[in-house]
Amino acid sequence: MKKTSKFVLPILLSSAFLGTTFISQNPSNTIYAKATQATLGAGTFTVGKKADIKPGRYVIKSTNGSGNLSDSTGQINVILGQTIDNDSGQIDSYTTNLKKGDQVQIQGIESTSFTPAGKRIKKTILNAGDWKVGKDIKSGRYIITALQGSGNLSTNDGMINEILGTTSDSETGQVSSVTAHLTKGEILSTNLEQIKLTKK
Asked: DSSP of 111-138, one letter per residue?
């Protein structure tokens, strides 16, 4: 069973796998298909449905208020606000792919922006979100540490499933680092405000 950070609000969700759909403008510039800027209030919204959210890769931010952001796949379940609050586990953005048919639930947030994510580049410092090895992260063996915040760190194949923070906490099972080999195609998901991957 996936560990749950003590900060994340519990929500019962159905299970499905996040997919991706890409179109190629040219060999050196591949972008996510239909992502379009949107601003939504509290409620439940279907990806691909008219007037809701188009499929695509987004950076999701609160523009007014704070509350819970989740989706029907169970991949997203975070506390989102305009500012970072390490005590409550609140983050200020979440980057993810949204597939047609998925549902996104916004609770307690007056206004939330969905901004198409920019060009994907490989990096070693990541904010909260879902990151694909081979597109956002180079494959390899890493020591993963928290730069800010604490929360869930996992991979879609179950090889990583930890509560990670800047310090360890034996009561919650929180660790201060995770060593793992990340292989092409894996998706690394983090609820922490910021993590660092150091090549081992």
From this structure: EEEEEE-------SEEEEEEEEBTTTB-
